[in-house]
Amino acid sequence: MKPEAKFAMVIGALFVGLFLFAIIIAPGFRESYDKLLLGEGYEKFTGSDFTIWYSQKLYSEERIRTLDSTLSSFVGEFTRLMKKWDIEISEFSECTVYLLQNHEHLEKFGMQAIIADMSNNGGYFSPTNFSIALTNDDLRGLYHETVHLCFETSKSTLGNLAPWLNEGFAQYFENFPGKPDLRAIKDYELPSIEKIVNFEPKDFSK
């Protein structure tokens, strides 16, 4: 067999191995790794858009199922509104949400999962492993982190949103739908995204 043919066979076998790892081994490895980090007492719920790890002591499966449906509805409504600003939120691969029992567990989990100090934070979204971690299922925190998740997959004529604008949207939508009903907002009430990015300090005093 010619060296070129042997090389092609090796490359082909490598790709097959990587493919099998991605579809068979990797998901099982991720679940085992999650169980190791979380410890005992956590259950996994798999929804349409989110996988949610939750404490069996604190939540019922029915509660988590409702939470999954609420988050999916929020993503749909947020995506619809962003289109008015020429921001397209792409469909994302499944995001994992960790609902941790207390802040001490969040600090430990954050250091192990993303090597980050969570002592002054109530939760996080990690674009590296596409996950959200919080100390409870408070919708404000979940909406906040889900906005960051959506912007991670967004496409805009402006490219990536500035951190201050990304955080501003997340802060605003924490109270969804307590803010003005998104379905009632008219196009003329929404300044263009280009105008928002180019705001100057004097514009905020009007």
Question: Could you tell me the radius of gyration in angstroms?
Answer: 21 Å
| Record field, number of beta strands | 7
The geometry reads as globular
**Order of H and E elements:** HEEHEEHEEHEHH
Strand content: 5-15%
Number of helices: 6
Biggest sheet: strands side by side, in what order? 1-2-4-6-5
* Cα separation of the termini: 77 Å
Structural class by SSE content: alpha/beta
Helix content: 40-55%
**Averaged pLDDT, please?**
77
- In the predicted model, the low-confidence regions spanning at least 5 consecutive residues are 15-25, 180-188
The biggest sheet amounts to:
5 strands, mixed
Structural description of this entry:
The structure is a single chain. By secondary structure, this protein is an alpha/beta fold. Helices cover 48% and strands 15% of the residues. It is built from 6 helices and 7 strands, in the order H-E-E-H-E-E-H-E-E-H-E-H-H. It has a 5-stranded mixed sheet, sandwiched between helices. Strands 3-7 form a two-stranded antiparallel ribbon. Helix 2 crosses helix 4. The chain is globular and about 55 Å long. The model is unreliable at 15-25 and 180-188 (pLDDT under 50).
List keywords for this structure.
206 residues, alpha/beta, two-stranded antiparallel sheet
Blueprint of the fold:
Layout: H1 3-38, E1 42-46, E2 50-55, H2 61-83, E3 87-89, E4 95-99, H3 103-113, E5 123-126, E6 131-134, H4 139-152, E7 154-156, H5 163-172, H6 193-197
Parallel strand pairs: 2-4, 4-6
Antiparallel strand pairs: 1-2, 3-7, 5-6
Helix pairs in contact: 2-4, 4-5
Give a short overview:
Helix content is 48%, strand content 15%. The longest helix is centred in the N-terminal third of the chain and has 36 residues.
